[in-house]
Design goal:
The protein folds into 3 domains: about 90 residues, Udp-n-acetylmuramoylalanyl-d-glutamate--2,6- Diaminopimelate Ligase, Chain: A, domain 1 (3-Layer(aba) Sandwich), CATH 3.40.1390.10; about 200 residues, UDP N-Acetylglucosamine Acyltransferase, domain 1; about 30 residues. The strands form 6 sheets. Strands 8-11-14-17-20-25-28-31-34-37 form a 10-stranded parallel sheet, with no helix packed on it. Strands 10-13-16-19-24-27-30-33-36-38 form a 10-stranded parallel sheet, with no helix packed on it. Strands 9-12-15-18-23-26-29-32-35 form a 9-stranded parallel sheet, with no helix packed on it. The N and C termini lie far apart (about 80 Å). About 15% of the residues lie in helices and about 30% in strands. It is an alpha/beta fold.
Length: about 325
């Protein structure tokens, strides 16, 4: 696929510098771009690479035009421009094409137009697959599950029974949707399993990363609202609610019955306690441990950055003594009153 610079400018809302008829076939980094490719500059620390780049054109901010004299697409947010151009020139294949002969599809399942189901996939009774749904090889879609139009499952995705998934969603390989939540009662030392009777309800334009697990609700539903994006290897427990456009990075976990607000970001390795509420526009930095609810928007952090082991050991000893130091300080303050 090749497209002119002028057409790209119109698509991403940029201003053309240079030859608008220049044809672009793909996108690359500044360092590795070649003739016919477009690159982008959104981080100032890579500005020095402009001088040596062989890209046919670059997406950049007007402030960086003094370092680039060739063809360009000029806009306020070059990273957004890059994302849109990457979407337009995307060469990712479909997860399935047509209906594979080895697919097992229950006769009661309802399939829309242009549905594709890969080899060895299993579609159980009562399933509804809307138009243009793609189900990759070896996927399992459980009874009474509904999947909205244009949603794509890569290979080996498991969707349990009675799950509701919206339109334009993407599920990477190994994702498990609707598995049992961790619900047990202790009966004199024996664990008594509590059947998980709720669903998972996922909105539109939701993306779920590889090997991420989303548990079904115990009684009520686990809910992911429109525009939520979840990275690889995350755990979302039963009855969690994640509101619109919140993003969660790899290896983070949310315990049961917690509600996350809109437009939040959860960095990698964050642990969020159960049965708490997080306000809209809250942002957790990596390795944060969230034990209590948060009512005000803002950036929150915890955890200790890595240091030299000898220094860490000294700090650990000092931390063990904090309580006794605190008691001595209180005693001194009381004496000096």
């Amino acid at each position: 696929m090749a497209i002119s610079l002028a057409e790209l400018a119109q698509y991403i809302g940029a201003r053309v510098q240079g030859d608008g008829a220049l044809m672009i076939s793909s996108i690359a980094t500044l360092q590795n771009a070649a003739d016919g490719q477009i690159s982008f500059l959104s981080n100032s620390k890579y500005r020095s690479q402009l001088a040596d780049s062989s890209a046919s054109a670059v997406i950049l901010h007007a402030d960086n035009l003094d370092c680039w004299s060739a063809a360009a697409l000029v806009m306020d947010n070059p990273y957004i421009g890059f994302a849109k151009v990457a979407q337009l020139l995307d060469t990712t294949p479909k997860s399935a094409e047509g209906i594979a002969a080895s697919a097992v599809i229950d006769k009661t399942a309802q399939l829309g137009t242009n549905v594709a189901i890969g080899p060895n996939a299993v579609i159980e009774s009562g399933v509804v697959l809307a138009d243009n749904v793609q189900i990759g090889a070896n996927c399992f879609v459980g009874k009474q599950t509904v999947i909205g139009e244009n949603t794509k499952l890569w290979a080996n995705v498991v969707v349990y029974h009675n799950v509701q998934i919206g339109s334009d969603c993407l599920f990477q390989s190994g994702a498990v949707i609707g598995s049992d939540g961790f619900g047990y009662a202790n009966d004199n030392g024996q664990w008594l399993k509590i059947p998980q009777l709720g669903r998972v309800v996922i909105g539109d334009r939701v993306e779920i990363g590889a090997s991420t697990t989303i548990d079904r609700g115990a009684i009520d539903d686990t809910i992911l609202a429109d525009g939520v994006i979840i990275d690889n290897q995350c755990q979302i427990a039963h009855n969690v609610v994640i509101n619109e456009n919140t993003a969660m990075a790899a290896c983070s976990v949310i315990a049961g019955s917690t509600r996350i607000g809109k437009n939040c970001t959860i960095a990698g390795l964050v642990g969020i306690n159960g049965h708490i509420n997080i306000a809209d526009n809250v942002h957790f930095t990596g390795t944060s441990m969230v034990t209590k609810g948060i009512t005000e928007a803002g950036v929150y952090s915890s955890g200790m950055p890595v240091v030299n082991n000898k220094l860490w050991r000294r700090n650990a000893v000092a931390m063990r003594n904090l309580d006794s130091m605190n008691q001595r300080i209180k005693a001194l303050e009381k004496t000096n009153k």
